[in-house]
Amino acid sequence: MVVRPPANAQEATVMGDQCNLLFLLCKLFSATGCVNVVVNSIAFGVSRDPFMMVMVAAILLLYAAILRVALRWKRERDDYRFLSQAQTLFTGLGFAWGTTIILFALNGTADQTVLLLGLASGVVSTPIISVPMAVAFGFFIPNALLSIYAVCLVMPHADMFSATAFISFCCYAAIGIMFTNMTFSGRSEARAALQREIETVNVFLREYEQGSPDWLWQTDRDGRIAEATPRMAEAVGLAPAILNGRKLAGLVSTVRDNEGAEDRNRQDLAGCFQDRQAFREMLVRHEGAHGVRWSRLTGHPVYDHRGRIAGFRGIGRDVTAEHEAREKVNFLARHDSLTGLLNRRAFVEVVADLCKEKRSFALVFIDLDNFKGINDTYGHHAGDQLLQSIAGRIHHSIRPQDTGARLGGDEFALLVMGADGEEGLAVAERLAQQLGQTFAVDGIKIHPGASIGVSACPKDAHDPQRLMMLADLALYKAKEQGKGKACLFERWIEEEHHSLITREAELAEAIRKDQIGVHYQPIVDLKSHRIVSAEALVRWNHPTRGCIPPSEFIGTAERCGLMEELGEVVLRTACRDAMTWTTPIQVNVNLSPRQLRSGRFPEILAQALEASGLPSERLGIEITENVLLDQDDKTLRQLDSIRSQGAKLILDDFGTGYSSLTYLHEVEVDGIKIDAAFTSKLPEKKVAMIYRMIARLALDLNIYVVAEGVEEPSQMEWLNQNGIRFAQGYLLGRPAPSPPATRVEYLA
To answer: Is the pTM of this model over 0.70?
Structure first.
């Protein structure tokens, strides 16, 4: 067991710790050892034995040498040299003490047995607290062996019990030396490893702070910044000298943040300092030389060696760009990107929250009039600018506590806080007036106008979905009243809406159950007095309400998408009925624009003619100018297909639309029917001139003319005098379900 040079840094650290302890033990052992040897030598009569005097002197010299070696290590810090010399000196000291104890046993009396055992035990136990093991056992082994010899064999009145007890004590001392050294070495190695880790962490922290945008911070127990780093000073925008000593919680303000861990928002920074609570990714705001900045702080309490709070330590990270980007994303998630108003989702959430809190407010729905036409005429760019201008007027017309939103397209909404229905209607009327004023867009003056519906919470509804539905119903009613109108919801509006829904369901059921019938109104040749054709007019044979005229359900069919199905029923019924008439006259069927949307009408027409067997030349299809408004290719192709199948095309309600003459140029028709609005005013001079002009035009185009709405004999007389050959009206025959007669009874 020899002291060896350290093989690595850890062994060198352990050896240094051993030297520190051994230095103290050298001073302790030297002092106590010198006293013991002098006192006991006097007790055992050292003066009687010259050899004993030599051994005592040797012990004193060895203690002096040990003390000298220790003091030199203190100056030079040569660990290996110190331990090597100490091992040699302590081994020599062990032999000297063992030999001296033998001499004390030889010269001692029986009365000194206890003193001898005590001295031997004390000297043997000395290296129990000594390190390293080579030094400790260098002293212990020779001293223990020689002491055992003295106690067992040389000591006066030596006995087996004393010898056994002393040998056991020596074994205990040997085990104690081993455990002491192993424990010391383990702790020393652990301390060395910890120190290396600390140094490594410090290196990493320095490199991290130099190469990372994050920065380190530290406070004392009062939360005051200690040793502010340059990176922290740069992030906060203040000099390190200014930062040191300032309270960190007073320098920044904690921001409630919905992102991240749940414990982040439980307390602010000052609360965490006060409660000595660690925190993670806490969002804080601070102002400095760089303006407003946002950072996230992570920290934990630091304790001193007595377990008392010493302060806080942690890392800060500048998240200004990230925070501003997230704020922008959050804003866009809740606001319309074009107008900056709340979007539909956010607005619905606000309405739901207000209803949940049982707040009083008026809900205003706004729909622009003719926005599609403006968009199509001036382009989407102008349309977007118009929407922005409208949003600006809405924003400036409301109070700070009110809320505006764009629900999508040309739909806007408004919350008027603390208002009832009447107050909400007053706001809506003022807003309708403002939105009806001129808007300048790219130098173009536009008059969009808006229809507005109003409902009130809690008077009308507490449920947000129902409240919005009622505002929608009021908006639709405002549109029915004309452009630029505002309407407050009333119960009758909902009742009318439910009635409409019921009518839609009943109409769909009526089509399925064959409750749709057809009446026929004759078209008469005024010269021959004969009926030349009949117009098929739909009727609803309701099981309880009787015969319902088309004016009460055609609009319903168009709104709910039943027009194509209803028109097909009328077409097939008219073709089938016409085949049963004794006189093979023409039957005319009206065609709605909605029947052309799917593009299936030519196919339906062909199937109806084939199923009924009706010759196509006996069928007339009456169209209004509404069919021709768009003049898209699909519509024109279907109209060409109708004529190509042999059916006649008749332009109905001629003169009431936008450009009847243009349509005569675009579409080949076989006849025109002059609207009853003109006929009812005959024989006024202007109307008469229009009639004559249309008649001459039709003659030139080889198109026949039918005068609609003939109800007075004077009207029929004027038509006869001016060459209008065909007429239709109540005077000549009312619509009836029976087949038309051959001649008109009135004329007969």
So the answer is: no
